[in-house]
What we know:
By secondary structure, this protein is of the alpha/beta class. The chain folds into two domains: about 1-95 and about 270-355, Isopropylmalate Dehydrogenase (3-Layer(aba) Sandwich), CATH 3.40.718; about 105-260, Isopropylmalate Dehydrogenase, CATH 3.40.718.10. The chain has helices at about 10-25, 40-45, 50-60, 85-90, 115-120, 165-180, 195-210, 220-230, 240-255, 295-305, 310-325, 345-355, and strands at about 1-10, 30-35, 60-65, 95-105, 125-130, 140-145, 155, 185-190, 215-220, 235-240, 265, 275, 330, 340.
Amino acid sequence: MKIAxxxxxxxxxxxVEQAVNVLNRxxxxxxxxxxxxxxxxxxxHGHPLPEATLKLAQDADAxxxxxxxxxxxxxxxxxxxxEQAILGLRKNLNLFANLRPAILYPELAGASTxxxxxxxxxxxxxxxxxxxDIYFGQPRGVRIAPDGPFKGQREGFDTMRYAEGEIRRIxxxxxxxxxxxxxxxxxxxxxxxxxxxxxxxEIVTDVHKEYPDVELDHMYVDNxxxxxxxxxxxxDVVVTGNMFGDILSDQAAMLTGSIGMLPSAxxxxxxxxxxxxxxxxxxxxxxxGIANPLAxxxxxxxxxxxxxxxxxxxxxxxxAVKKVLAQGLRTADIYEAGTTKVGTKEMxxxxxxxxx
Length: 356
Ligand code: NAD
């Protein structure tokens, strides 16, 4: 099995190194090959997603990705900015389904900004559509306003759109995920204001007919944002579009205390996937050896489960992570008085040791 390793920028290389060490310890014969991506891709080959990197990702069975983005590339034109690499990979590999679990480990209950009774035991799966919506819709740009009260002025505009097939395929992923959990699915939309999301609601309701064992409810995105902090445990699986999912998944991440704990999977129709931590490249702490590698290590576990058919190995990694948390080891982002503060490398080594 071939795994493409794309460390990227900022803390990416530090945290991916730890996840690779964990994979190497499993005793499997994975073929792993690295390539530069993001700012590192631009520095090496003049493009955030160099051709050779894309080819490696296309040929691999799964991709382990760190993060991209660096302030030093902020002045580049948009097409050459590091973040375009991740959009390019999603589009080229047709990774339309983003799965983001938000789990609050009991040991970290105090790390959440919400009261422990509101969040303890939290276990949500957010399913975000990843290749459509206003992020990809055309036309877009800056033009002279053709009408309205500001006619004649410059205006920025984007296009929100979803095709029926796009909604159907993400709805199937979400219903099937719900079937494997508590059989409850919440579809988040803005059907009261947006045509696109009125259509979304209609199609999700239609797909529901194929999953009568799953209980479906619909919620407007503003209410969902409120409920996520008021009563997050009311949710189990949540499905939504690209933009709403982008925002809600970071909000859900913070319920658990640190974005440094949260893995994610982006899958195509055949379960080939790109696995990455939910956070970015954290340039503010890059190179300091203090980043939390657990989200990336847990992403490697998701990779074993969803793309490489190695659920037992995934369980081993997740158990090892729980063990190091129970031992009281914490990186700075999840540190609390009475626990032991460790760096990126020490945390990675502790997980490797906990694998036995
Ligand atoms: P970020 O997630 O990189 O950082 C937000 C905050 O969380 C920072 O204070 C950071 O230090 C902290 N943090 C993030 N990951 C951490 C970890 N593993 N351990 C400890 N602390 C951690 O978001 P940002 O600052 O908005 O963006 C930084 C760069 O990352 C930007 O260039 C952005 O475009 C990019 N980005 C990339 C991705 C991706 O590669 N998929 C996703 C989001 C943002």
